[in-house]
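User: Batch of two.

Assistant: Item 1 of 2:
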Amino acid sequence: MDDYIAISLLNDFIFCPYSIYLHNVYMESDESQYHAAPQTMGRIAHKTVDEKKTTNGKGDLVSVSVCSDEFRIFGKIDLYRYSSKTLIERKYQLKNIFRGQIYQLWAQYYCLCEMGMKVEKLAFYEISTNKMIPVPLPGANDREEFVSFLCMVRKYNPSSDININTNKCRHCIYCNLCDKNRIENVYI
């Protein structure tokens, strides 16, 4: 399982591949060194799912570990509703849906399908607005794009140069710990 990728890292990789390296460096340290308000809100939002305290229908799957040997990915789903065959990813707030978030949902979808579950719908649930946002199921071209993306993640070398995007860097939780930039974090 050395080359299996955690589903939770897919969006982070698109945001900044180097942030995954920094996450691994600092993961044993005090989170207060680098966590900011968005991560704290996200953790709180996920708490009800992680502790399986969310309201759900009888027999729905909540916070279940999933894995795909075909794609060599693993992670957890937030919610699968048997009644509507819908896979739901909960987010506290969604001003935009980023490609990495779509990849995370697709990854969960592919895992469930490989595990024999029938998934007919995908959606994000925005907790702050109590709004369900449907997402189309991935097609053949989406699958190719996803496989290509996973190859890129596996080939990434943290010693390579990164494109510094000052707006992204300012909002990165590792900004002040990063050796690739000299930008101040907006969360200070």
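Item 2 of 2:
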Amino acid sequence: MSFEFGVAVAVIVVFALLGLPIGHAMIGASILYLLISGMDMSIAAEQLLRGLYGSYILLAIPLFIFAADLMNIGSLSDRLLIFCRALVGRFRGGLGHVNVVSSLIFSGMSGSAIADAVGMGRIIINLMLKDGKYPAAYAGALTAASAIIGPIIPPSIPMVLYALISDTSIGYLFLGGVAPGLILGILLMIANAIMARRYNFPVEEAVPVRELPKATLNAIPALLMPVILLVGIYGGVTTPTEAAALAALYAFVVSIVLYRSISPRQAFEAFRQSAKSTASVGILIAGALAFNYVVTIENVPSAIRSVLEGYNLDAVMFLLVVNVILLVLGCLLEGNAILLVIVPIFIPTAMALGIDPVHFGVVVVVNIMIGLATPPYGLLLFVVSNITKSPVASTIKFLLPFLAIMIAGLAIVTYAPDVVLWLPRMYGYNG
């Protein structure tokens, strides 16, 4: 590792500590590396422009973001909430169960943990806090934990990014995330049921069974979104990017034409918010593309591979090491930055050890999503604390049991690859 590379890494750390967005920090560090190495600094611009404009797959990201924003603004999320409440709200800690189930369903539309927490999560938190039914910190902790499921079940923006760096099929990655997402949802509901009894949380008034068909009927247009996505992709009708465009169009038509729940001003606001979110993700991707060029020049992946090979790690130990490293980094760094900068270093070694790329991708995404809710930096902690107006420390207290059970779920996904691969294999995957 050269002096120039050490300087670049130090610059990223300093800039990040000063509060500069990590994407900007990586771009600045890459340019500085090229400068002190005597190379043409325009290479940084060439790398990021080629990566951004030469990758058709990246178009899926703004389209999924736009679909999620329309869901949040319109009445689709409200109809889904009514359906979930009728389905599981009758049990002790019922609104907690509603929180998890709504995340499972809403995840089939947004692909973003933050979108889930800010949209559907905000609505459920308000219900949980009404009349003091649940502590604010508990409502926030469960919302942060359940929002993690969003990018694991398709569609998934992090899986789109993993496909970009690993040249893995998005369709098979999406299928691979279904079972792990459901497992995490079930584990969270078990934990919520245990904590509901421990803290004597209330039992909600049961919605009569006869009203369930009506709630289901009202929610069908929203529930069809993931069906359209999956049928389009796995039926060979659309590419994943085209499916994202179809999802955005479907959300737009249903919200404006069918439900008439979005005004022109709200539609414009959805476009504006989507543009802002896309720009934020785009800058991060641009920074990662520029810095990954530096990492490649320095031959960092090969160096790390040689170090790991020196320890004679088998696939089991390698996955354990990767999980520990990613969990620790998840406490400190932004998830997409880890995915775009750190994960590519591990991919060659994973392939050399015979680890399936779809399985490895799902393990990585689950791990990084847990990092979104892991103290001290986890972004979801600050999002839900802002919604609940509860101190982050109080939220963390209730979050720790959920984190523990999600790490147990991560262990299942890591060491039982068939959990991930059985569904892709049903659709022709040969891994």
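The chain has a mean pLDDT of 81.
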